[in-house]
Amino acid sequence: MKALFSKLLVIxxxxxxxxxxxxxxxxxWDSTYRPGKYVELVAKFKxxxxxxxxxxxxxxxxxxxxDWAKLLDLPQAKNRGISGDxxxxxxxxxxxxxxxxxxxxxxxxxxxxxxxxxxxxxILRNYKTMIARIRKGSKKTHIYFNTLLxxxxxxxxxxxxxxxxxxxxxxxxxxxxxxxxxxxxIDLYPNFTDQDKHLRAELTKDGLHLISxxxxxxxxxxxxxGYLTEx
Length: 231
Prior knowledge:
The chain starts with a helix and ends in a 6-residue tail after the last helix. A five-stranded parallel β-sheet has the order 2-1-3-4-5. It has a single domain, classed as Rossmann fold, CATH 3.40.50.1110. The radius of gyration is 20 Å and the shape is globular. It is α/β, with parallel strands linked by helices. The chain has helices at 2-27, 37-47, 61-64, 68-72, 87-100, 111-115, 120-137, 165-175, 212-225; strands at residues 55-59, 77-81, 104-108, 142-146, 183-186.
């Protein structure tokens, strides 16, 4: 009996450790940006002067790929995009943004999570955590949460990001439910799709990232919507 109990105990311990390791792998985050550059950028962002008039653009390389202040003619626009970032990275550096008490925060994040096979439910949980933390720590900050952009597999460069349209669509459906006090949903997705629901080829260089024409579509949409000027 003791021998049987010992074997069962070993099985339970092994299973528990395996499950814990698998879970840890799911929730682990890092950046695919150049080694050391991620930490360097976070430190730079912390050192930058902050104002309650700031309009923060928060996300990954898609956000990082343009000069928002110049593109939108808004000197108070601050680019807080970091290449390769995922939702866990944004959560890790979110407090610095909250402490600055910006007037607006525009969030676009999650495509890299999808590429790493982080479960949709975990990504959604992280989205909700971002909103909750900002609403609690900076009550006057208006949150603008963007739906994810489509991708285009015809370019064949970022294969881990392609072929996962169902995840993009599911998360976008969930994001569209976020509208609440001080939370506005910006449905970017339809502005970037072609007839096959892929990222429009003329707006991208690799099926994932935008070129200047793509950012201009984004900027025109924001200006037309009035999101940049509303109180």
